[in-house]
Design goal:
P-loop_NTPase; ATP binding; IS21-like element helper ATPase IstB; 12 helices; IstB; 255 residues; alpha/beta; ATP-binding
């Protein structure tokens, strides 16, 4: 028993908390299975690594400020045939992040843009990639406050730091001149340095009116689109599909 406690203390001193916690259980299992010393050690270390990966995932997810958790497995590609599932699966490899490329999901409300954005963010986090998720309204509100408090440069660095910045819901509210300029500064600062994944319900031709400045809108789009993957989603709203299937909204499903 003394040797067992010494071993547990040594594991704790080395920071192997999960291994220390599971030591008794693994020793009990080993007494019945009679594994080799190396097999026993590897099993104990595997448990420690799995727990650390789980904790790291939880921390990275919290720091990403995701509004909810969705995965690609939750997404009904059959409901949105306009989406190239193969392209989405390719994006999920995160090669675009290593290349500092951008992803733009365009389409009307409810077609799954935000779901896909969150799902790709979750995949990035699982691969150890730093992510920050923010709606456009939150981004502008945050930077506008920093601007009035003369700390804009410091605050913009928050949006430069992550390898993947997700900006959701572009197009729901018009920009004033300051908001358009603040958005430009973020896009410009990340250009060819970090990836942006954004969702918008506006076509690119509408961005000039949206921002109240066609020249600035062109400058923003020039940087966003230079290295980018554009996914245009055309289909029905997920939020209304159950009503559509029952005929309560639009035509009932024929399937």
């Amino acid at each position: 028993m003394i040797e067992l406690e010494q071993a547990r203390l040594r594991l704790e001193e080395l920071g192997l908390q999960q291994a220390a916690l599971l030591l008794d259980a693994h020793l009990e299992a080993a007494s019945h299975g009679q594994p080799t010393y190396l097999s026993f050690l590897n099993t104990l270390l595997d448990a420690e690594i799995a727990e650390r990966q789980k904790r790291n995932m939880e921390v990275r997810t919290k720091l990403a400020h995701l509004p909810y958790r969705k995965t690609l497995e939750d997404f009904d590609f059959a409901f949105q045939p306009s989406i190239d599932e193969r392209l989405i699966r390719e994006l999920a490899t995160m090669t675009f992040v290593t290349r500092h490329e951008n992803v733009l999901f365009l389409g009307p409300p409810g077609v799954g843009k935000s779901h896909l954005a969150v799902a790709l963010a979750v995949e990035a986090i699982s691969q150890g990639i730093s992510v920050y998720f923010v709606s456009l309204s939150q981004l502008i509100e945050d930077l506008r406050k920093a601007y009035t408090e003369n700390r804009l440069d410091k605050r913009i660095r928050i949006y430069i730091r992550p390898k993947l910045l997700v900006i959701d819901e572009i197009g729901y509210l018009p920009f004033d001149s300051l908001a358009a300029n603040l958005f430009f500064q973020v896009v410009s600062a990340r250009y060819e340095k970090g990836s942006i994944l954004l969702t918008s319900n506006k076509s690119f031709g509408e961005w000039g009116e949206l921002m109240g400045d066609p020249i600035l809108a062109t400058a923003i789009l020039d940087r966003l689109l230079h290295h980018s993957h554009i996914v245009n989603i055309r289909g029905n709203s997920y939020r209304l599909r159950e009503k559509m299937r029952t005929g309560a909204y639009g035509s009932p499903s024929t399937t």
